[in-house]
Structure formats: structure tokens, C-alpha cells
Amino acid sequence: MAxxxxxxxxxxxxxxxxxxxxxxxxxxxxxxxAFGAAVGTMDKARGVNDxxxxxxxxxxxxxxxxxxxxxH
Length: 72
What we know:
This protein has about 70 residues and is mainly α. About 65% of the residues lie in helices and about 0% in strands.
């Protein structure tokens, strides 16, 4: 087989290999990836933050009630 035929065969093979489906595969759910634990941690942190903000509001109200002023 001559070098020209080999080059032609390689080019044709490369072109045919590039003719694949353009549809991308569906990505897995985040919980099934390496980032799953981080997402769970962030959700927990948001929940804790909400709790802390509620406690802060309760404390602010209690302080306002004690000194006669109201912040809300």
C-alpha cells in the first residue's frame, strides 16, 4: 500500500469518526457526581443560616420590648 493510499485512508477514517451524533448525553444528577456532598453541605448551611437569622430577629424583638422601642 502506497503512502498516498494510507494518508487517504487515515483522512477518510478521521472524517467518518467525526460524523457522530450532535446530541449531547444527559448529565447525571448532581447528587451522583463528585459535587453531591458539597451541594448537600450548602443546603444544610442555608438551613442553619435561616435558623440563625430567625433567632436574631427574636432576640432583637426581645431587646426592643425590654427598652420600650420596637425595631419591627
